[in-house]
Specification:
The protein has about 120 residues and is mainly alpha-helical. Helix content is about 60%, strand content about 0%. The chain has five helices and no strands. Helix 1 packs parallel to helix 5 and helix 4 packs across helix 5. The longest helix is centred in the N-terminal third of the chain and has 23 residues. The termini are far apart.
Amino acid sequence: MSRRIFACIALLSASLASSAARAEDLSASDAKQLFSAYGCNACHEVDEARIGPPYRAVAARYVRSAQVERDEWLARKIRLGGAGSWGFVPMVANPRLSAQDALAIARWILALEPGA
């Protein structure tokens, strides 16, 4: 029985490690796939203003915020939506998006170089 518990703990640890790695190591192509899958690119682009702000503008706005707080805040905003941060058009909630994918997207956006 202790082997089963050990196996479960090992599996859980590996799963958590891969989740953390995914959030940290999201490539540009992975990000684009997620944006397409969840419809983010209908309103946002890296450097182009559409219905919502460009991702690079989001990165610039929150560049001085504490890393963990801004990652988690933006991930929640991506999943739950909201209004007022960028004008009158509300950001639509994305409840199908997992917390893990939302955090990965948030970290990718916030890692963009502000400017350009």
